Amino acid sequence: MSWQIGGKTLNSRLFIGSALYPSPAIMQQAIRSSGADVVTVSLRRQNPGEGGGSSFWQLIKELQLNILPNTAGCHSAKEAVTTAQMAREIFDTNWVKLEVIGDDYNLQPEPFQLLEAAEQLVKEGFEVFPYCTDDLVLCQRLRDAGCKVLMPWAAPIGTGKGIINPYALTTLRERLPDMPLIVDAGIGLPSHACQAMELGFDGILLNSAVAQAGDPVNMASAFASAVDAGRQAYLASPMPEKNTAAPSTPTLGTPFWHQDK
Length: 261
Description:
The chain is of the alpha/beta class. It is built from nine helices and ten strands. It has helices at 24-34, 54-63, 77-91, 111-123, 136-144, 166-175, 190-198, 208-211, 216-235, and strands at 3-5, 8-10, 14-17, 38-42, 66-70, 95-98, 127-132, 151-152, 182-184, 203-206.
């Protein structure tokens, strides 16, 4: 089922990255296998203006997908804004996945610089997809700054731990009911993605879980199925949890069959 985000219509709720694959060919195959409509690319890590990156960008173009440039590797609002401006010129898109890293150990976003960069980029007409933690107050401030999409983490980038704080993500979904929320970072297994979608999140962005799998192509397909399953489960309104057991087959009002002796 198609859906709208950032002024575009998508068919898939899985966003996929383009880094860390064993080879360019496997990258292309895995991204196609994912069924994703959006692929993220990093301007700072492989500049298309440099000759060494030209073949990579040609492979990305061949996929004919929506490109979501990111500001990976930036540590300040100034760096991130400059990188986003360059990406808009190169890729002819006002979409940007805004990353401003505050800690090099767990790659946690720097909230103050992130908010500053988001405010400026929104004013410049960007559709800002901020990579942030699951902190409710930060997410509210980013919304108030004009961000129409948020991308909270499940866990630190590349850890594959899955959702480490379900309470925080559930709170975000409940307190920001009309805000598109894409879980970004920390997803390691298709079951993690399915869990996030079952919580009511609108999509999943991942890279390492596919690129570093033993078989990236098949793993991409598995994630596509998991995202779809989680979305359908959420729409189906799962049964509430209970503290006591309840029989699945009721006995009241049903006949008992007795065998003659």
